[in-house]
Amino acid sequence: MSARRYLAIAAAAAAVAATTACGGGSDGGDRALVRGAIPGLGAQGAGDASPPAPTSSTAPGTPEPTSPTAAAAPTVPAVPAVSWPDLPSDGTARAVVTPAGVVLPVTGGGDGAYAVSTPCARQATVAGTPLSRAHVVLDPGHGGDEPGAVGPGGLTEAPVNLAIAQETKRLLEASGATVVLTRSADYRIALRTRAAIATALEPLAFVSIHHNAEPDGPWPGPGAETYYQIANDASKRLAGLLWEEQVAALAPFGADWMADTDAGAKYRPASDGGDYYGILRRSAGIDAVLSEAAFISNGSEEALLATSAFQLAEAGAIARAIARFVATDDPGSGFTEPYPRTTPAGPGGGVDDCVDPPLE
Ligand SMILES: [Zn+2]
User: How far apart are CA 238 and CA 286, in angstroms?
Assistant: First the structure.
């Protein structure tokens, strides 16, 4: 639907929904994007390992629009050419796409009748199209009765996350990758099911797409945060590449940016020293990153997130970061030491009171 209609609907919801944390969860899209022409490969983000102090210098020569919603959107650099590797597979169905388009991890069966775990992590038997491997799995955060963080204008994370994931999928597929989304529409799906899809398909990269809330204060550029798996150096490199690409892609828009004072590529430990965020903890063994590119709780950034141009720019950044992760040894940048946090992440991601969508 149009952004205007979407915002009108979302504004009604805002009457009863206060701004909440993103809800990446300790355990816990229906808009078509403008299909703009994508010019040739442009400049990548700065490749150094400097601490995150995002400024316009991350995108030299790119003019700033006169307002956050200026019609002349920044151009989006193309995804670099990647020779996506053949994925060894024994042909086993590890996941299945049901006739309703819901992707589910397979737990058994075959020959057209697959035992699966549902989005709410219940057991079921379904028909569908089998999947064995994928180059990339993207995870649009939240959905259904879990909207995620809510902006002051009423825009919620879930549809924005899905729209950007769908666009990222399109860009990566155009470069030759196979890409699977954990969530294909507006329904609830538990963290354990999201992670099960990723671990089943063994992608080269797994990115969970979210948008942030509750910043510390104003910041000179995008306050992008990318969380990596503490015990995984490859996850850390992917987070550094993603931070680098996001800041370069988003800074030219101009906004009254907000951030946490430790914005950058970072980690969040649980009390036991492992990964706090369930999507990273449960996907151990896969190179995974949790992306919080912008603050939807900040009205200025919320207005940008509602636009196709900004969504396309963010999707391009995610796609380029993944392509560089696979095709290069670039180290990434923006690594920062996080300050300790005691505030829980937003709710959601569990299975209590979860209602499954129609599967077939
Ligand atoms: Zn979120």
Answer: 12
